[in-house]
Specification:
alpha+beta; four-stranded antiparallel β-sheet; 14 strands
Length: 304
Amino acid sequence: MTLPAEHWAPCSDRARERADPLAGTAPRGIRWFLLEVAASWGTNALLDAPFDRALGRALARRVEAADMRILAIRRTGRRTPPATQRWAIVDSRPGGERIVWGEVADARELLDVPLDGSTGTASSDPVFAVCAHGRHDRCCAVRGRRVATALAAAYPDETWECSHVGGDRFAGTMVVFPQGLYYGYADDGDPVRIGDAHGDGHVVADRLRGRSSLSHPVQAAQHYARKSFGDDRIAAYPPLDETSTADGWRVRLGLDGGASVVVHLADESSPPLLSTCAATRLVRVRQYGLREIRIEDAAGRIVG
């Protein structure tokens, strides 16, 4: 099904009108290669001019072969290439979170950077990567740059614009590394609160899409646990197990003291929608409804 052109509106505006849920929408990402590309980006930031296309293809193949995701990053407002090109390797796995920074003087040296994080300088500072990839989607240009500008004023060293991360309709979108915490609608309200909360070890639950290293059902289950019980710590509700059911999922999340939160999710589909500004065909996307949530003790008895 296609939508007539006269009914077009920016995808992030439509998403807000529909109240598209954020929970359980963070794309998969366990390990990452971030590359500073200070110039303007094409539709595919590392595969289109002005970036060297042959180098971009070789680098993307190498990174993807290592089961990593690659993102272009740049400072807000800066378009003059620096003397050296910075890169970062990020591990988003729970318990193994890590960021390592390095740099090269010649972009061709990027093909020799070890992807296991064995070189470079480890950093304890987070990275706030805000999608501002305007040639991929106009909502990212408009809403993303608002978020990046506000965050950069408060956190200049931690904030970067980044290439497409997924979920254009949720713009302004951003990812907080090293944990891989995806946020959406970040320009609704002050985005600086996301940085402030992260510094305190918490998430902003009403803007959180999920953690990229976890499955979509676990992301949704954590959302409902936070909404029901109020623990907004980043480390809260670690996944213990997940099982598919006839019409959804059963997810068990950990609590202190051996108890657990058991969440039953319904597998649902959205109404037909246009998922990006460039889309012309209506699609349905997966959503996760809450059927039941309860607390069980270590013996499996329901206690809340």
